[in-house]
């Protein structure tokens, strides 16, 4: 009794969480491809399963089916949205085009399935009046959750300040409301799970309330309650009950028809190449815990016997176990840097050509820093700048990754400004002050940190950006912490970027003056040791040197014992770009160039420490391949490898006696 109750609670709250995370925009405004693939991928397997069941049922242990026939065929034909979303997340494909299409198709599948299941539940009533009553009750329940419960939910969100915490009382009331809704769903002829799902789906995904509910309940449900459900399934499963060969073969053929129909129904209307279409078809075949929940319900109501239940459960588990490794082999997300034409770097931007920057932010605290760097890049009529401003948000309280304009991301009907609104408002004000020399496009990227780099790199690739500007967060090396996830994101962007990357490290710098060209003043220091990254950093500093409000200081360090012939080509390239910088700024009194010969890295660091000037921005290259001192034993002592050895030293110490921003540059791989 306790086991059954606990497992039912697990499913109730799991269905509730699915509703909370569900993106209703995919339901109300689905894409054509998703509708076409989703419907074909549901109807074709349903027809094949229905035909196979009709002819093979006498060979199975399933008795007369009646209205249960519809539910039976449907359950073997659908692709549960939660199962598809979880598989995409586990395989790091949630942010890929394939993952987004698969989740959208599964959403269409689920919505059609819910409607059919509700109709079937009405048909299962014993009398006509009971069926009419069930339909009327379902309509009344729908009105209750949309016109009574939803306004209450919206009111809770409106009364919660942006960035604030939802009251614990409201969280408890809503969690108790799940049980009430489940009871209502059961009483009116639906299932308790549908009742719980109905309450979840009216809570806006990604809202403060939705995030609070997910954060406070998901771990308890998945780590504590769900194991009781699995235990219950295990107790109902008896491998030794499978003795009837005809029943086993007949059920396998029926399930095979469902899988084949799903595969063919997905591939035929799919406008993808053969390999990707096959991958999508395999994804849609996957089943999950919700199918097992249906089988358990059938077993509980004696619609199937122990043998059939065991065959269904084990077959579905084996199907998913087999398909997951196949997907990792068949489908490889595109590596954007490998396919892009050469030239995506600051060094190779043509004169009088627009500079496109991908500016990434996690919150509003570094908005001024980003704007200052964009302004320092000297946007002008001849050299305009276009910034794609990405507000990066971890995927919490949602199941679907999103890349969209901030105004379309949050579907809540409240008019409260969000964090994205504050960020984009600051950039709009700055853009308006530049008289058209700086354009920007706001985007909100909601995805798991472990795969968010795919979206960032794709945006950079599609828009031919020359620079990704990414804030640096120090890794606290704690398992599961947000800083550890952000560190992984940074490493992934550095490894997969189709253009140059600049990591912004705030060293206590608080420059709050609004960046307007006539009044903007900024002091920049570039430490040049040599190599591709340093040359890219010099190209950025060279562009900055044309700004009338900037002073740029370039210090080139040469080691007295550096006679490695293998680096002769690199030295020639270094000499070329340095010579070009000096010629360009020959008459520019705001640009200074110094050469310093040092014996070792310690002497170089002492020289840097001795600098008396106050700098707003310090720029260094990330990888100093031509400098033995920075590629030898010191690399093993680096704690923040994403900054490189020199960047880590400067970011972690007090070499310069003032507050400043540090920019660590990496050239295109």
UniProtKB/TrEMBL annotation:
Organism ancestry: Eukaryota, Viridiplantae, Streptophyta, Embryophyta, Tracheophyta
Family that this chain belongs to: Belongs to the monovalent cation:proton antiporter 2 (CPA2) transporter (TC 2.A.37) family. CHX (TC 2.A.37.4) subfamily.
Name of the protein in its database record: Cation/H(+) antiporter 15-like
Pfam families, A to Z: CHX17_2nd, CHX17_C, Na_H_Exchanger
Residue ranges constituting the Cation/H+ exchanger transmembrane domain according to the UniProt record: 2-327
Domain Cation/H(+) antiporter central: 387-509
GO molecular function, one term: antiporter activity
InterPro entries referenced in this protein's UniProt entry, alphabetically: Cation/H_exchanger_TM (IPR006153), CHX17_2nd (IPR057291), CHX17_C (IPR057290), CPA2_transporter (IPR050794), Na+/solute_symporter_sf (IPR038770)
Membrane topology: Multi-pass membrane protein
Membrane-spanning residues: 12-28, 35-56, 68-89, 101-124, 130-149, 170-188, 221-242, 248-265, 277-297, 309-331
Entry's localization field: Membrane
Source species of the chain: Nelumbo nucifera (Sacred lotus)
Main location group: membrane
Keyword annotations: Ion transport, Membrane, Potassium, Potassium transport, Transmembrane, Transmembrane helix, Transport
Gene3D superfamilies: 1.20.1530.20, 3.40.50.12370
This protein's GO CC annotations: endomembrane system; membrane
GO biological process, one term: proton transmembrane transport
Cation/H(+) antiporter C-terminal domain: residues covered: 521-665
């Amino acid at each position: 009794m306790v086991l059954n109750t606990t497992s039912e609670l697990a499913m109730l709250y799991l269905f509730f969480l699915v509703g909370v995370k569900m993106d209703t925009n995919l339901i109300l405004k689905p894409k054509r491809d998703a509708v076409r693939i989703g419907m074909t991928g549901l109807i074709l397997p349903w027809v094949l399963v229905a035909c196979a069941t009709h002819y093979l049922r006498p060979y199975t242990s399933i008795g007369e089916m009646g209205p249960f026939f519809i539910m039976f065929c449907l359950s073997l034909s659908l692709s549960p949205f939660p199962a598809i979303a979880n598989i995409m997340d586990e395989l790091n494909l949630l942010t890929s085009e394939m993952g987004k299409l698969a989740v959208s198709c599964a959403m269409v599948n689920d919505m059609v399935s819910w409607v059919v299941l509700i109709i079937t539940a009405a048909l299962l009533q014993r009398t006509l009046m009971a069926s009419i009553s069930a339909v009327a009750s379902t309509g009344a329940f729908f009105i209750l959750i949309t016109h009574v419960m939803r306004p209450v939910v919206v009111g809770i969100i409106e009364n919660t300040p942006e960035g604030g915490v939802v009251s614990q009382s409201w969280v408890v009331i809503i969690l108790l409301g799940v049980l009430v809704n489940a009871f209502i769903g059961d009483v009116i002829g639906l299932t308790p799970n549908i009742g719980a799902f109905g309450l979840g789906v009216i809570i806006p995904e990604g809202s403060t309330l939705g995030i609070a509910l997910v954060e406070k309940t998901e771990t308890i449900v998945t780590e504590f309650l769900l194991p009781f459900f699995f235990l219950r399934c295990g107790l109902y499963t008896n491998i030794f009950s499978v003795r009837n060969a005809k029943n086993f073969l007949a059920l396998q053929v029926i399930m095979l028809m469902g899988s084949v129909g799903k595969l063919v129904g997905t591939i035929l209307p799919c406008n993808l190449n053969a390999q990707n279409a096959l991958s999508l078809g395999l994804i849609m075949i996957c089943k999950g815990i919700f199918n097992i929940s249906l089988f358990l319900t059938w077993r509980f109501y004696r619609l199937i016997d122990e043998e059939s239940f065991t065959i269904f459960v084990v077959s579905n588990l084996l199907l998913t176990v087999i398909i997951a490794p196949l997907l990792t082999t068949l489908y490889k997300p595109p590596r954007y840097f490998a396919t892009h034409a050469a030239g995506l770097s600051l060094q190779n931007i043509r004169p009088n050509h627009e500079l496109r920057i991908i500016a990434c932010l996690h919150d509003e605290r570094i908005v001024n820093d980003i704007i200052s760097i964009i302004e320092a890049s000297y946007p002008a009529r001849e050299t305009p700048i276009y910034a794609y401003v990405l507000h990066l948000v971890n995927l919490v309280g949602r199941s679907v990754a999103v890349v969209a304009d901030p105004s379309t991301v949050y579907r809540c009907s409240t008019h409260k400004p969000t964090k994205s609104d504050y960020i984009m408002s600051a950039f709009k004000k700055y853009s308006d002050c530049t008289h058209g020399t700086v354009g920007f496009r706001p985007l909100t990227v909601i995805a798991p940190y472990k795969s968010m780099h795919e979206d960032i790199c794709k945006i950079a690739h599609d828009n031919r950006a020359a620079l990704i500007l990414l804030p640096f967060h120090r890794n606290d090396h704690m398992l599961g912490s947000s800083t550890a996830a952000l560190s992984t994101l940074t490493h992934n962007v550095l490894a997969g970027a189709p253009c140059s990357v600049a990591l912004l490290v705030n060293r206590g710098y608080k420059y709050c003056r609004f960046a307007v060209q006539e009044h903007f003043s900024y002091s920049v220091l570039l430490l040049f040791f040599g190599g591709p990254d340093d040359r890219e950093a010099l190209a950025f500093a060279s562009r900055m040197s044309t700004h009338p409000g900037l002073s740029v200081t370039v210090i080139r360090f040469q080691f007295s014992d550096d006679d490695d012939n293998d680096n002769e080509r690199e030295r020639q390239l270094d000499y070329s770009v340095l010579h070009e910088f000096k010629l360009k700024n020959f008459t520019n009194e705001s640009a200074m160039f110094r050469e310093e010969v040092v014996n070792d890295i310690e002497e170089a660091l002492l020289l840097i420490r001795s600098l008396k000037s106050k700098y707003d921005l310090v720029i260094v290259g990330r990888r100093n391949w031509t400098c033995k001192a920075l590629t030898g034993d010191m690399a093993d002592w680096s704690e923040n490898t994403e900054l490189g050895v020199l960047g880590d030293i400067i970011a972690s110490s007090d070499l310069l006696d003032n507050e400043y921003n540090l920019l660590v540059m990496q050239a295109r791989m």
